[in-house]
Amino acid sequence: MAVKKNSKTKELQIQNNFISKFKEALPTSVGLAEELADVLGVSIDSAYRRIRGETELTIEEVYKLTKKYAISVDEVFSNRSDTVTFSYTKLIDSAQNLENYFNRISTHLKLITQFDNKKLHYVAEETPLFYSFFTKKNAEFKLFYWQRSVLNVPEYQNKKFEWGIIPKQIVENAHQSFLEYLKVPSVEIWTNETILTNLRQIQFYQDSGIITKAQALELLDENKKMLEMVQGFAETGRKNISDKTETFQLYCSEVVLGTNCIYVQMGETKYSYITFNTMNSITTNNPEFCEETEHWMKNLEKKSNLISGISEKQRYQFFSGMFKTIDEFIARANN
Question: What is the pLDDT of residues 60-74, one digit of tens each?
Answer without folding.
Answer: 888 788 777 767 665
